[in-house]
């Protein structure tokens, strides 16, 4: 809670908070009896759910390309296979293990902010701050069929739980720099030498509605799979019906007014849907170890096909 509520604490305050949290975790752990046997529970499903048919596949590199090749490919999105297969989060310190995640969140007592509802575009959408163990139990391991979706989305989990930060590595591509067609050099949302990291952890069928971001993005998949669909902003934006300034003065122009997805077409009004269907897109399935590069400004829609844990890296 100290890190969540303090916003952006200075280096000395952050160090103090992290030291106190680490000591608290050690003290609490000393009172816990040792587990009689390692937990065999896993977030990885034993049987994969059916994935949507891919008709307009994303460009895919079967192995990580050179920096030079990466810099000449920034105008369009692409998947890089095995980009993060070496991460401890996928190997020796697996994030697919609930026991491992609990062991680094003070036995699940660490508080995390959760988005409640289908997506941030829904009127019923809201947020809660709850213990990580409660989130894991109620929304990931034992969700009630009648309960709403809970999603740990776009959260700087790694400043709150530094031990998990040691399980991943920033892709070298994030330190490369090359302005592309969609870049706006005047946008200064990110003014830092280090990419911004965010965690995305949720159950099957969590989604991010069709939207754009003002920075480059590499989305790395750690647990489960995600379906991704992307639209070129230079040619397809008029058919995506961007929202405008809404009640309360909130600017939603970076979010589409269409509920896109491989299941949602029937939910939209016929005239809008018919126009939207004319928009061209590319799509793909992101699997554990894969990384997806998303250029600045590209419209993208994301839906998890399984329980999913991803990390995004944003940079200018």
TrEMBL record:
SMART domains: JmjC. Gene3D superfamilies: Cupin (2.60.120.650). Signal peptide: none annotated. Residues 159-316 form the JmjC domain. SUPFAM superfamilies: Clavaminate synthase-like. Transmembrane segments: none annotated. It comes from the Eukaryota. This is Clavaminate synthase-like protein. It comes from Terfezia boudieri ATCC MYA-4762.
């Amino acid at each position: 809670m100290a890190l969540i509520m303090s916003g952006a604490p200075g280096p000395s305050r952050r160090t103090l908070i992290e030291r106190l949290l680490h000591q608290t975790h050690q003290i609490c752990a000393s009172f816990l009896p040792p587990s009689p046997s390692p937990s065999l529970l896993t977030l990885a499903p034993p049987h994969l759910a059916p994935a949507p048919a891919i008709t307009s596949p994303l460009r895919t590199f079967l192995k990580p390309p050179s920096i030079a090749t990466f810099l000449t490919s920034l105008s369009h999105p692409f998947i890089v296979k095995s980009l993060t297969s070496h991460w401890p989060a996928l190997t020796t310190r697996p994030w697919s293990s609930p026991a491992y995640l609990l062991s680094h969140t003070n036995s699940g007592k660490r508080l995390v902010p959760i988005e409640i509802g289908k997506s941030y575009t829904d009127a019923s959408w809201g947020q809660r701050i709850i213990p990580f163990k409660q989130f894991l139990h109620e929304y990931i391991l034992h969700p009630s069929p009648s309960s709403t979706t809970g999603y740990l989305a776009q959260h700087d989990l790694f400043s709150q739980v530094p031990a998990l930060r040691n399980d991943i590595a920033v892709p070298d591509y994030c330190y490369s720099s090359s302005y592309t067609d969609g870049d706006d050099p005047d946008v200064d949302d990110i003014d830092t030498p280090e990419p911004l990291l965010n965690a995305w952890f949720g159950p099957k069928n969590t989604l991010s509605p069709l939207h754009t971001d003002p920075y480059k993005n590499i989305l790395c998949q750690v647990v489960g799979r995600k379906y991704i669909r992307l639209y070129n902003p230079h040619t397809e934006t008029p058919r995506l019906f961007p929202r405008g300034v809404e009640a309360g003065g909130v600017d939603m122009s970076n979010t589409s007014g269409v509920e896109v997805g491989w299941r949602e077409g029937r939910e939209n009004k016929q005239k809008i849907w018919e126009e939207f269907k004319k928009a061209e897109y590319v799509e793909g399935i992101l699997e554990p170890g894969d990384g997806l590069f998303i250029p600045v400004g590209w419209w993208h829609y994301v839906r998890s096909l399984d329980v999913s844990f991803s990390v995004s890296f944003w940079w200018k």
